[in-house]
Amino acid sequence: MAMQATDSVKAVHEHDKYAQDINFQQLISTRKKVASVLTALTLVTYFTFILLMAFGKEILSATIAPNITIGIPIGAAVIVISWLLTFTYANWANKKYDPLVEEVKERMGG
């Protein structure tokens, strides 16, 4: 029981140490900005398509080839855009975020 309390106090101390570091705060702020922009783009893409399905049926039902409506490529584009946004985040995290996390951890001794 005393060991759990010691571990808990140590964890709180580690959290406070990272939370007060200016580089860690900037890292978290940057991650929030990138994630917010990409999330907003994803939501705009999906809700635009949903609203188009709800209120623009005549647009989506326009044929571009025999038995193919414009809704099919637009729906496929929504999927491709979500893949691209996911790739963008993963690429950014691997190339920029993760090295900065390691740098902060090394500097903080953790």
Gist of the model:
With 110 residues, this protein is mainly α. The chain contains 4 helices and 2 strands; from the N terminus they run αααββα. It is elongated.
Explain this structure.
It is a single chain. With 110 residues, this protein is mainly alpha-helical. The chain is 85% helix and 5% strand. It is built from 4 helices and 2 strands, in the order H-H-H-E-E-H. It has a two-stranded antiparallel ribbon. Strand 1 and strand 2 form a beta hairpin. The two termini are 25 Å apart. The model has no long low-confidence stretch (mean pLDDT 90).
Overall pLDDT: 90
Proportion of residues in β-strands:
under 5%
- Described by the principal axes of the CA atoms, the overall outline is elongated
* pLDDT < 50 stretches: none
Number of helices, where a helix is a run of at least 4 consecutive DSSP H or I residues: 4
Report helical residue fraction. Answer: over 70%
Task: List strands and helices in order, with pairings.
Layout: H1 2-19, H2 22-55, H3 57-60, E1 63-65, E2 68-69, H4 71-108
Antiparallel strand pairs: 1-2
Keywords:
2 strands, two-stranded antiparallel ribbon, mainly alpha, 4 helices, 5% strand, single chain, 110 residues
